From TrEMBL, chains A, B, C, D, E, F:
Entries under Gene3D superfamilies matching the protein: AhpD-like
Protein's name in the database: 4-carboxymuconolactone decarboxylase
GO MF annotations in UniProt: 4-carboxymuconolactone decarboxylase activity
Originating species: Variovorax ginsengisoli
Membrane-spanning ranges: none
EC code: 4.1.1.44
Domain Carboxymuconolactone decarboxylase-like residue range list: 33-118
Pfam families reported in the protein's UniProt record: CMD
Length: 126, 126, 126, 126, 126, 126
């Protein structure tokens, strides 16, 4: 057992988005419970926990990548929310998505912006 | 003519990577000279020049996206170099590429790391 | 301000699909109003307005590309409709989507055909 | 007419998933009936019918590929069901999807696992 | 044997690019000779031979799609050449590639333009 | 330290392709040595080592996915070789790649077949 990685991973996942993390873990329970453990251990225990890049930049980079790939809508929404949780402004998120128009085209950027609009709406009036 | 956007775009492109920019512009001369102008005006004049996100974060986001997409090797190299030009550390670039293993898989991250290795080697010993 | 590009872009966007364009612009209003302007200026003011390729072929090429990419369903629907607006026949659209089975696989082509079926149904009986 | 390929294709399609196949064929009837014929003839009459690789491995390979591509959700669901029909265990399907986390990232694998969960639920309690 | 499709396919393939077709067929000889037959029969015998869309538009649509996908460089070069063979102008090809900047990003369009430059150079001075 | 995962991962990596694995590890040494460790621990220590799917099927699934994605040529070659190392026949590999023509298009399958041809040639005459 790699309890240290698991504990470190959960702590980091909670910083990013504990509720969304819990929902995914719950959703995996009766299909692939081991994958829930791996999800906590590798992405959050191994990668997100590394020094050398702050959590805000990590989340903006993930929002950029998922916007550009355009085939992972649920995860894009989670990480737009995660970016907010770790302190990114709405403007920073919008800017990073807009920039993807240059690298992955306008449809990718538009779908990213509409995902951001949806997630920001859940925050209520600013 | 949108000279203002063009001038602003060239200035921004020079901040990111003037030499690579010039090479691309030269390469387009006898195939699509208008595209060279559009490349300066829209990505650099319109997008990169916007406030609300610093140039370092913009470049790290682009490195993330191009690593994840995995189908734009020449542009990934240019932006790894561009990230360095605007002040990103080698470590920050390596971290953002490693993180793509989580979102786009290990092959994407490996190919990104080898591109970074190639570009860092051009800098000579640190 | 680049009013000339904006005006030219809106005119061109209206030729392709004014209603869908307006919906997108409206949707962007409270998340990224600047992106609405960029969307009119660059794709429609700069690219679609160029001579050298007629609007029908431009729209069929876009339907082909979005079908092949398979990750931009809302934009595919808009451009299937846009292709009809600029004079493409239903048969031409179906043929270009079917051809994508060769280049991007049968799932991409099937999803494209079902998008076309949905959009053609909105036209009512022919 | 290539009736031999068509007959062979339908027989193979029925082995994989006759009901889903029929639904797709029906759905194509008023948009692209020829494509329904091509879908039976080439993928199922020409490719699936070849010797040298058993049907179980073919279906697991398709589940792997569609999970990794991440842009063909309806077809992924059909082939998760098809893999079950030709004798793959739920565990084999889950393993092949989990493995895609390595090659295409965690979002692709998660979306694949949730598709599997949905399809397995239709089977009722095991 | 589907000799009719094969004969029709070869005739169509020769219209598009007989030499490139022959090279691919030869290259497949000792790895997958059956695939050479399938390549002639399905894409060229079944799809390209259909009425309802002229060969020029088919080739421009393929150039658009392969530029946008960005992961099939050899085939993009073949179809840029094929587009020329069936009567597309250099300008039409350049325009359709430039348009992909909007839908798949600037890197995809740039890599497409450089492929076109390479293929046009083989034609010698115009 | 997770020495158990590391040891188990290296053993599994050696089964798949010890030499290619070592080359990648060496290549990462001066750019991202930690990533070499993660590459052994997560993909090989955590995923490949799981029961429930034999190594031959795992490798064929990876060949399928990398062929379909079309943007990871070096890794596709490694896993074609890996598939051979764990006992897959050349015919099985060719069949799984050919099948990708259906799901990801002919260019993806062709590029996969040519990669297989290259890797099989290194084995010398059979």
């Amino acid at each position: 057992m790699n309890d240290e990685r698991y504990v470190r991973g959960w702590a980091k996942l909670k910083e990013v988005d504990g509720q969304a993390g819990q929902n995914v873990i719950d959703g995996l329970k009766d299909i692939a419970p081991d994958f829930a453990r791996l999800l906590i251990e590798f992405p959050f225990g191994d990668i997100y926990s590394r020094p050398g890049l702050d959590l805000r930049t990590r989340e903006l980079a993930v929002v950029a990548a998922l916007t550009a790939m355009g085939n992972a809508a649920p995860q894009l929404r989670v990480h737009i929310h995660g970016a907010r949780n770790v302190g990114c402004t709405q403007q920073e998120i919008v800017e990073v998505i807009m920039q993807m128009a240059v690298y992955a085209g306008f449809p990718a950027a538009l779908n990213g912006l509409f995902a951001a609009k949806e997630m920001f709406a859940l925050e209520g009036p600013q």
